[in-house]
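Need the bound structure for adenosine-5'-triphosphate, inputs here:
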Amino acid sequence: MGKSNDDFIMTIDDDDDNIVIPDEEKDIAEEEEQDKDQSKAGKKNKKTNKKKNQLQQKDEDFDNQFTFALDGGGDVGPAKPWDFTAARTMLKNKDLERTSIDDIISKKRKETKELKKSQKIQDSKPAPAENDDDDDDENDDNDDDEENENVFDDDDDDLAEDGFGAGAKEEGKPTDEDEENDISEGDEDDSATDTEDEDQDDVNMNNSDDDDEEDDELEQKRKDAYFAPEEENVPKEHQSFSSMNLSRPILKGLANLGFIKPTDIQARTIPVALLGKDICGGAVTGSGKTAAFVVPILERLLYRPRQQASTRVLILCPTRELAAQVHSVAVKLAGYTDITFCLCVGGLSVKQQEADLKLKPDVVVATPGRLIDHIRNSMGFGLDQSEILVMDEADRMLEDGFADELGEIIKSCPKSRQTMLFSATMTDNVDQLVRMSLKNPVRLFVDKSNQAATRLIQEFVRIRANRESDRSAILLALCRKTFKKKVIIFFRSKAAAHQMKILFGLVGLNAGELHGNLTQEQRLESLERFRDLEIDYLMATDLAARGLDIKGIDTVINYNMPTQFAQYLHRVGRTARAGRNGRSVTLVGEQDRKMLKMAVKSANSAQVKNRVVPMDTIQRYKEKVESLSSQIQEVLQEEKEDRALRSAEMQLRKSENLLAHGKEIYARPARTWFQTETEKKKAQEENTPKEYRSKKMDDAKPVEKENKIKRGKYDGMSRHKRRRVQAMEDDEDYMKDARKQKTSAKKAKKAAQPRRL
Ligand SMILES: Nc1ncnc2c1ncn2[C@@H]1O[C@H](COP(=O)(O)OP(=O)(O)OP(=O)(O)O)[C@@H](O)[C@H]1O
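Answer from helper R.:
Posting the output first, comments after.
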C-alpha cells in the first residue's frame, strides 16, 4: 500500500522528540498552581513563567546549522528591528476616541460573575454537587481551568491514538485502516519503495508527464531566452558583507542590526543588484529578502548626485504594515548615511505625506493605492526620476486588486529603471514577469520553490465533514491547553477573527486582532502589543500573512486552511524565521484534502505531524462556547451601538467643520484617481475585467507596450472565479513540478543501475 503513514502519524515518542512546547513540559503540579486562579497572583506567575520560558527557549530553539547563525546571525539582531515610529507620526484623527472592545468584554465578564454570585446567594438550598459542577462549567473560569488539568492528560494520551482526526476514535469509525488508506494516497508519490502499486502509479504519471514534456520544453526555451544566465552575473559566493565591497556606513548599518553574515539570498542578490541588473528573487519566508534589496539600494544611493534632490527609489508592498516594516528596517540600515525616506501608505495622513514628498526623499516605500493618489494629486510629486523599482511580495502584486494599479505605477516610471521582484512564492513565469516589465532579469531562486522553512513543524488537526461546528471548540482547547503565547491565528474573514477575539476575551485569554475592519491606529497597536508580548494571541486575516517579521512567534494556527498553497506557505512562514524553530497547526476540513496533500508533499516527513484533540475535550469546550454565544452577541450589539454613536458624532463634527470652513474646503481641487468613478466602481465590483481594461487602455493613449495586460484566458471571469482559477493553475504547476522531479529522480535512478551486458 505504498508508503505507510507512520511517517505522518505523531506518536508520543515522536512528540517527545520533536515537539518542544515549554508549557507542556511543566510539572502538572505547577500547572495546577498556575491554572487554579487567574487572578493577580496567577497572572504574575504566568508572567514569570513566560519570561523563564522565553529565556530557556532562546537557547534551545535556535538552529545553529542555519546559514547565518554561525556568527550569531539570526539571534543577535535587536529585539525590535522595526517599529512604527514613522507611521505613528502620520496617524489621522489622533484625538478621536475609539471603541475599546476590551472594555466591553471585561464589562461583560464582570456582569456575568456578579450575576453568578448573586444567584448563589439567593439560592438558600445548597445545590446537589453534580448540578453545581455543571453550573460552574458554564460560567466559572476557575472550574474551567480545572477541566484543563484533565485535558492536559487527555491530550498527551491521545496525540497518537487516531490516525488522523479530532475525536475520530470516539465516533467509532472510520477504522484505522481507512485512515491509513486516506493518508497513504497522498504519501505514495514520495515513497522510495519499488512496490507494484507505485510502479502503476508511475505509469499513470508518466503518461501525463509525456503530455507535459513538450509544453515544458517550449516554456524552458522561452525562459532560457528571457533570463540572463545566472553564472555570468554572480561574481562569487560571499561569506561576509565586507567581501561585497560595501561602503563603511552600510556595513555599520548592518552591524547595528546584528547582521554579520549574509543569508544565501543576500549573498547572491547584493552583488547582482549592485550591477544594476533586473532581478527576480525567491527564497523561503524569513530568509532575509528585505535586506537583500535594501542593502544594494543604499549602496547605490551613496553615490547619487547631490545637487538636486529627487526620488530615485520606489519600494512597493501589498500591505500598509509590511510597508511600514520595510520602511523601518531600511531607515535603520541607512542609519549612518544621509539617505532620506518617506512612507506612503493608506490609513495615514495624506497631508503629512504630501509635505514629506515635497522634500523629494531618496526612497519612497508605498502601497500602490496611496502612491497613485499622490502621483495624481500631490503637486510636484512624480516618479519620472526613479531609477530603481522594487516589488516586495511581487506575486501578490500581480493578483487582482493590484494588477491595474501596478500598470498605472509602472507607466509612471522611466523605462530605463532597474526592477527587482521578490517573494517566497515567486514563480519564473515569463508572462507574469513581462507584465511586470522586467528586462532580461537574473533569476535568483535560492530554495526549492514552494517550500516552508526547514525548522517548521507542520501539524494538522482533522475536522470531519459532519463536525465542522467543532472548529471553535478545538481552537479554544488548543489555546487553553497547549499554545499559550506568541500565537498568531489566521481566519478567512474579518468577522470570524473579531468574534473569536471576543470569545477569547470572555474566557480570559489575552487576544488582539489584526484585520481590515480596524482603524490604522488599532492595526499598528495590535501588532506592537503582540510584538511586545502584551497580548498572547493575534487573530488575523490574510492581511498579516505576508512579510510581517515578528521575532519569536512560536505558533501559527490556521483556523481554516487557505485556498491557495502559496498563501498557506506565507501564513506558516510567520514562524520558524531566520533559522529558528516554529510550529504551525492547521485545522483541515474534508474540502482541504488537496491542500493538505500539497503541504505534506512539500515537507520532510519529520516536519509533518498529526494532532488529535480528544472528543470529550472538544465536547466540553463546545458546551463552553455555546454557553457564551449569547454574550458574544451582546458584546457585538453593544459595539454596534457604540459605533453608531461615534459615527453620529463624526457626522456632527463634519457638518460643523463644513459650516465653519465650507468655502475653503469647496475651493480645493477635487482629488482624482487613475480610473473614472464608474471604472473604479466597476473594478471594485470585480466584474468583467476585459471590458474595463480595454476601455482604460483606449483612454490612456499612448500606452506603453509594457503596460498592456494580456490576460485573454481570464477575460469575462469574476474576480473570485479568476482568482480561484489562477490558484488552481498555480497548484497544478506545483504538482507538475513535483511529478517532474519524481520522474527525473526515477530516470536518474534507473540510469545509475548497472546495465546488463
Ligand atoms: N544577515 C542577517 N543576519 C541575521 N539576521 C538577519 C539577516 N538578514 C535578515 N535577518 C533577520 O531575519 C529575519 C527575516 O528577514 P526578512 O523579514 O527580510 O525575511 P523575508 O525573507 O523577507 O521573509 P518573508 O518572505 O516572510 O517576507 C528578520 O528578523 C531579520 O532581522
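Comments: The pocket of adenosine-5'-triphosphate is lined by residues 68, 73-74, 77, 81, 258-259, 261-263, 266, 283, 285-291, 424, 547, 549, 551, 573, 577-578 (CB under 6 Å). Residues 238 and 267 are 5 Å apart (CA to CA).
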